[in-house]
Specification:
alpha/beta, Rossmann fold, two-stranded antiparallel sheet, 12% strand
């Protein structure tokens, strides 16, 4: 039987152990609270415990301080005495310091192994969300993806998609007959958005080798789960890229992992830090996608935990799927804060010993109001809980320590070197080159072996001493005079309707005179 995950001490004098049953850890969870109330430490101890159980973890490091998971805590830390005092207070008798096995990742390849995915794997829906495309522009992007599939042109990086959109624009007349109107204005708008994404670092995100999900689900030789830390400090400046990447990764996990039902412990646990970035201004179709994944990915053995300042940051339909709750203090300084506090309190199973609303307002740093799933997945009665101290280092490691861990990683040879294989860009480039060569060859053959029409023009030129105009086939000489020009004009006029009337009038008069 898998041991429970010790969260902290609850109840009177914090003597009642609050445990998270691993069997229900894939029922998802929420860690909420105002800034500075202890959310990061709670996330850290959960990651440590899951790793100790042999469960791989994926988490995003927004502020850079979660890198401390890679290093053991130390008695030299300024909070050492406080940690041991707290451990004794909550009955944490076997508290000790240790690190976790960690793999660092970075979308920009600066603080970890590069994280890449292909344009094709991202798909037109998430890419449209990332680029904030209109419905018409999204339609054209879908056409481009369809054509890439039909014509065997892999879409791997941004230059593949940019080249394909150019080709769509050049062939828009034919494509419009099949798919509807394809306008150059819409294509231009998509290209401009791609350029912005490229300038923000998206060019490095799209490409190969693409991230293999199996490399996020590794365990060590001693059976501990790997803690995958995604550096996300720079991503905070590009929230669309951050949220879209996380949604893509969650969708990939859902699509690729097989059904396992309700295992004794999760196969993988995913922590979404700064969860409000996922939902701010998100279209309904994507919120529905997150809700669908949250509902169904449980049966894949994946637990999803959202970390945010207020439960109100998470849409209600998704919030209802989060069974394990750890609520740090909420500060009710405004009317909106008070409403959110009241709503948060109403989501817990009441404890007659105290007011949940008052407890959420009053708990101090390192304390929380907890409700964890019990037998048969029933929410536990809410308890005021003193959170246990972490075993790994509290705070970030140094850059040299991070570099040392990266240099020893066996994934360096797999991901650190970018691959640029033949894809849509190269295929279209070759087509254009072949077409140019064919046109040049045809022109050379025409000069060497002129057609009958060309020979006729050449002959006419040789015998008339003049140049034949291609549009009229009429010869002319430089010696043409004003008189000859006038005579030609008179002849042309006489051939017309007015000329025929004049001739008929003259002839009629002659006949009458006779």
């Amino acid at each position: 039987m898998v041991n429970d995950i010790f969260i902290g001490g609850g109840g009177e004098n914090y003597s009642q152990k609050q445990n998270l049953n691993p069997k229900y850890a894939n029922r998802h969870g929420l860690i909420a609270g105002a800034t500075g109330t202890g959310k990061t430490v709670t996330l850290q101890i959960l990651a440590e415990n899951f790793s100790n159980l042999g469960v791989p973890v994926i988490l995003t490091d927004i502020k850079g301080d979660l890198s401390g998971l890679a290093k053991s805590g130390s008695p030299d830390h300024k909070l050492h005495d406080a940690f041991y005092s707290r451990a004794a207070q909550i009955g944490f008798d076997d508290y000790n310091y240790h690190n976790c096995p960690v793999t660092f990742w970075d979308l920009f390849g600066e603080q970890g192994h590069p994280v890449r995915t292909t344009v094709a794997e991202m798909g037109p829906l998430l890419l449209s969300r990332l680029l904030e495309l209109s419905e018409t522009q999204e339609g054209i992007l879908n056409i481009a993806f369809r054509l890439a599939d039909e014509q065997g042109m892999p879409l791997l990086d941004l230059k593949d998609l940019q080249a394909l959109l150019v080709w769509v624009g050049e062939n828009r007349a034919d494509l419009s007959l099949r798919y509807g109107n394809v306008s150059t204005a819409s294509i231009g708008a998509i290209q401009r958005r791609l350029l912005v994404l490229e300038n923000q670092g998206g060019n490095g995100f799209f490409g190969e080798p693409a991230l293999a999900l199996t490399d996020l689900m590794r365990t060590t030789a001693d059976g501990r789960g790997m803690v995958n830390i995604l550096a996300a400090d720079k991503l905070m400046a590009a929230p669309r890229l951050y949220s879209t990447f996380l949604l893509w990764l969650l969708s990939e996990l859902f699509e690729e992992l097989p059904e396992v039902g309700d295992p004794e412990k999760p196969r993988l646990v995913f922590f979404f830090d700064e969860a409000h970035l996922l939902f701010d201004d998100a279209p309904k179709v994507l919120i529905d996608k997150v809700e669908q994944v949250a509902r169904l990915i449980r049966s894949k053995g994946v637990g999803v935990y959202f970390i945010t300042q207020s439960p109100a940051d998470v849409p209600e339909d998704i919030l209802g799927q989060l069974g394990n709750r750890i609520q740090h203090a909420l500060r009710a300084f405004t009317a909106r804060d008070r409403r959110n506090l009241k709503l948060a309190a109403e989501t817990y199973r009441e404890n007659p010993a105290f007011s949940t609303e008052d407890a959420i307002r009053e708990v101090g740093v390192g304390e929380a109001v907890t409700s964890l799933l019990e037998k048969k997945g029933i929410p536990g009665v809410v308890q005021r809980t003193l959170i246990r101290p972490p075993s790994s280092q509290l705070g970030p490691i140094t850059q040299s320590e991070r570099a040392g861990i990266l240099s020893q990683s066996d994934l360096s040879s797999k991901y650190n070197t970018r691959i640029d294989r033949r894809s849509a860009f190269e295929i279209l480039q070759k087509r254009a080159g072949d077409a140019a060569k064919a046109a040049e060859k045809a022109e050379e053959q025409a000069e060497e072996d002129p057609s009958p029409v060309a020979r006729e023009f050449s002959t006419a030129r040789r015998y008339s001493g003049g140049r034949i105009g291609r549009s009229t086939s009429r010869s002319y000489r430089k010696q043409d005079t004003f008189a000859s020009a006038m005579s030609q004009a008179v002849i042309k006029e006489l051939k017309g309707t007015t000329g025929r009337r004049i001739v008929r009038g003259i002839l009629g008069g002659l006949f009458k005179g006779r």
